[in-house]
Amino acid sequence: MDTLAGASVEGAGFPYSSLSQLDDSVAKRSLAGASIGDPSVIQTSDGKWYAFATRTIGSAIYIQAAQSSDYETWELVVNADGSQYDALPDMPAWVAGGPPGTWAPDLVQVADGTFVMYFAAAAASSPTHHCIAAATASKVLGPYTPVGSEAMFCPLDQGGAIDASGFVEDGQRYVVYKVDGNSMGHGGACGNAVAPFVSTPIILQPVAADGITFNGAATTLLDNAGVSDQGVVEAPALVKSGSTYILFFSSNCFSDGHYTLSYATSTSVTGPYTRAAKPLLQSGDNEFTSPGGADVHVDGQHMVFHAAHNGGRAMYQAVISVVADVVSV
Predict the structure, then answer these.
(1) DSSP E strands: which ranges in 95-194?
(2) pLDDT (tens digit, 9 = 90+) per residue, 228-246?
(3) Which of 182, 153, 184 shows the shortest CA–CA distance to 166?
(4) DSSP structural state of residue 1
(5) pLDDT tens digit sequence for 235-277
(6) How far apart are CA 182 and CA 171, in angstroms?
(7) What is the torsion angle, in degrees rounded to the nearest 10, for the CA atoms of residue 124, residue 128, residue 132 and residue 134?
(8) Which uninterrupted H or E stretch holds 173?
């Protein structure tokens, strides 16, 4: 297998890994350069770590994967012939033809051992917008097979849906995701920095034990605050620490240096959520530029996220701590 470049970021206090040896463009919204964006992380019962990420633009890979035995040194998953492995090789019929813009996968393992991957892809009926679907596999690396003939979340009249993430508490599962309203915005950074600002709500949907079937009413957890967020909140990830629910999210536009990795807290899974006084990470912190797109393992400690790196985006990992509802890295 090819090995990802790994090194310590000066002053960061934790290592990073990037796909810097690739020459393709990799991005959520066409950011040029070689990178791994919108990563998710999962650990299997044998102690191994796996990360999955947004598709590699310019290649035939829909969802890329990496693995690690120690959470520090990562390897890009490749096929026997050395070509890059695709964890989701086939798209369902509702996905637009051509490059489907597959974004932001997230993985959970449900009680019967099945691995469920949530992913976003461009809709055939509206190719400029995305919908979220699920795919399943019996092994963590798959290959994953899409479930059903339709998307799970597809509010095209509101801009579509992206950035799904799973959460479970006492057997009750949820999917939290973003309604991609900025895809229908009035211009500016990421399409929604010009008033009137379009809603980009983060939604919580209860699901059954299979991680897919809806079993309750959806709740809005957070929305953008207009100009101070450049009309964008996205990339939600929900964890619980003690009696506190922590909703990680990104705000502002990912491509212009204002992107942040932020969080909000609540004493109820359905909110209301109160934003922390400042972002967990923002441009300038530990020499990062535009950190965001985070995912947190179910242990509430192991986090992966991306930041701008060498003209693209790199995946970074950290171990976070929570003290008195304040998160730190």
Answers:
(1) 103-109, 115-123, 126-137, 145-146, 161-169, 172-179
(2) 999 999 999 999 999 999 9
(3) 153
(4) -
(5) 999 999 999 999 999 999 998 999 999 999 999 999 999 999 9
(6) 34
(7) 40
(8) strand 172-179
Marked catalytic residue, from 106, 163, 180, 234: 234
Cα distance between residue 250 and residue 232, in whole Å: 8
For residues 304 and 39, give the distance between their C-alpha atoms in angstroms, rounded to a whole number.
6
Question: At 231, which amino acid appears?
Answer: G
Query: What phi, psi does 153 have (nearest 5°)?
Result: -130, 120
Handedness of CA 23, 124, 218, 88 (dihedral sign): negative
Tell me the C-alpha distance between 67 and 136, whole Å. 19
Q: Spell out the domain ranges in the chain.
A: 5-323
Residues β-bridged to residue 146: 135
Task: For residue 64, give every residue at least 6 positions away whose Cβ sits within 8 Å of its Cβ, in sequence order, or none.
Answer: 19, 26, 36, 52, 53, 54, 55, 56, 76, 77, 84, 85, 86, 87
Q: How many CB atoms lie within 10 A of CB 236?
A: 27
**299: annotated active-site residue:** no
Amino acid, res. 269: V
What gap in Å lies between CA 265 and CA 280, rounded to an integer?
Answer: 13
**Class of the domain covering 5-323:** mainly beta
- 38 catalytic per annotation: yes
| Per annotation, catalytic residue among 38, 86, 285, 295 | 38
Question: Three-state SS for 5?
Answer: strand
Q: Where residue 99 falls among pLDDT bands split at 50, 70, 90?
A: confident
Angle made by CA atoms 157, 158, 162, in degrees to the nearest 5: 115
Please return the burial class of 89, using the count of CB atoms within 10 Å of its CB with bins 0-12, 13-18 and 19+: middle
Task: Give the residue carrying structure tokens 């997230």.
Answer: 106
What single-letter amino acid sits at 66? A
CA–CA distance, 274 with 277 (Å, rounded to integer): 9
